[in-house]
Design a protein that fits this description.
Number of domains: 2
Radius of gyration: 19 Å
CATH topology of the largest domain: Threonyl-tRNA Synthetase, Chain A, domain 2
Number of helices: 5
CATH superfamily of the largest domain: Threonyl-trna Synthetase, Chain A, domain 2
Structural class: alpha+beta
Strand order of the largest sheet: 2-3-7-6-5-8
Helix content: 10-25%
Length: 242
């Protein structure tokens, strides 16, 4: 079992750990990690693992399994029992933190203003995207959505989180904001790590990603383009400005 430090401290940049196992010379499982594994539309962290000998191994990809987190490194050399220091690429992590909290703001505003659920999303830099199902797309309406998002950010809302039980999660439909997701399957997949992310008094939802501590860290949201992805499916690309 890998202790997931990223769930408790989004600003953890480095940590000490012990190598639990290594597969094919490059897939490294640690007893604990602050590296975020790809999931929920958020890319994995990258960075490096430093051995006690001083040799460093680049972490190029991170993936979550039911009971562990695997770190793909760029070369062999690590072995079970070795002590390492993990160093997260902070610039990459922080960009994704800002984008992720911004995406929650957009989700929340679209839901409150239009009653629509998001059908998909992918975080990146400098652009991220959100997909929604909407019959009559109106650019002027989404100019107002963008303005409302930035008004919400300007309130300097604090972001916090807490863990809840499966029963409590299943009993609140407002926690589920992604169209087409089977609530029971999602809860079973999350196991005992059902975390609620709260953005001030604006929004609460189930989420396992990393976020900033206050909405002021986001900057401003700017919708840069819209794409038609099929019947009633619109894709919104957005960027962040300081």
């Amino acid at each position: 079992m890998t202790e997931k430090l990223y769930l408790m401290d989004h600003c953890c940049r480095d940590f000490d750990a012990i190598v639990v196992s290594v597969a094919d010379g490059k897939f490294v499982v640690l007893d604990k990690t602050a590296f975020y594994p790809q999931g929920g539309g958020q890319p994995s962290d990258t960075g490096r693992l430093a051995a006690e000998s001083g040799e460093e191994f680049k972490v190029v990809f991170v993936k979550k399994f039911p009971d562990s987190v695997s770190h793909e490194v760029d070369k062999p050399g690590l072995a079970a029992g070795m002590r390492v220091k993990g160093i997260v690429d902070w610039d990459r992590r922080y960009r994704h933190m800002r984008m992720h909290t911004a995406a929650h703001i957009i989700h929340g505003v679209i839901f409150s203003e239009l009653g629509l659920l998001v059908s998909g999303n992918q975080l990146g830099w400098p652009q991220s995207r959100i997909d929604i199902n909407i019959e009559n797309f109106d650019r002027e309406k989404f100019a107002k959505i963008e303005k409302k998002c930035n008004e919400t950010i300007a309130k300097n809302l604090e972001i916090s989180f807490r863990f809840i039980s499966k029963d409590e999660a299943l009993g609140n439909l407002d926690y589920f904001r992604l169209m087409g997701v089977d609530r029971h399957q999602l809860i079973d997949r999350l196991g005992d790590e059902i975390r609620i992310v709260k953005i001030g008094d604006f929004d609460e939802s189930i989420d396992g990603g990393t976020h900033v501590r206050n909405t002021r860290e986001i900057g401003k949201i700017k919708f840069v383009r819209f794409e038609n992805k099929g019947a009633a499916n619109r894709r919104i690309y957005f960027e962040l400005t300081d």
